[in-house]
Amino acid sequence: MQTNGSERGVDALGQRVLVLNASYEPLQLISVRRAIILLLQEKAELIEAAQQQLRALQVTLAVPLVIRLVRYIRIPRRLKLPCSRRGIFARDRETCQYCGEQPGRHQLTMDHVIPRSQGGPTTWENLVTACRDCNHRKGGRTPEQAGMHLLSTPRQPQYLAFALLGEMERHDVWRKYAFI
User: Fold this and answer.
1) pTM for the predicted model, two decimal places
2) Inter-CA distances, 13 with 50, 136, 151, Å
3) pLDDT tens-digit readout, 104-158
4) What is the Cα–Cα distance from 46 to 146, expressed in whole angstroms?
């Protein structure tokens, strides 16, 4: 398939497509190639497309950005998500949980609310995103000991599509499907 569109030199097959459940819940990101297969097999419907087109011998298709599955896929709600640096930053929307600043990912750190030196575990409920200045100011103390307050109480995300949140916010079309 060839690509044809307003953006010359962009490989449409290398892009990602947001897959929504039949209920419009975000499920995952897949390749354009996989999305086209789901559309051609009528397992999904096109919700949003780019201006680019894919052309084959006898068919022209819009490059999908968002597709919706025709059948509902049941998702376990109590899925245990692994606690990771990327996950903590995504949950906290790359915002320092002490001062509210968003200095950029390279200036962010993970902070143990109850420090490890005081027996604090490395869990969703004990980790927050902090800018370097706030993390340094807090040091090996609890927020109360340091006279600092958290903007929100850290907790484990319950929603499976949370894993997509950081990616979804990077694409304008996908943002409206990222409801938390």
Assistant:
1) 0.58
2) 12, 44, 41
3) 989 999 999 999 999 999 999 999 999 999 999 999 999 999 999 999 999 887 6
4) 52
Classify residue 93 as left (phi > 0), alpha (psi -120 to 50) or beta.
left
| 173-178: long-range contacts, CB 8 A cutoff, minimum separation 24 | 173/18, 173/48, 173/65, 173/66, 174/18, 174/26, 174/65, 174/66, 177/18, 177/20, 177/24, 177/26, 177/66, 178/26
CA atoms within 13 A on the CB side of 20: 21
Nearest Cα neighbor of 164 from 27, 12, 63 is: 27
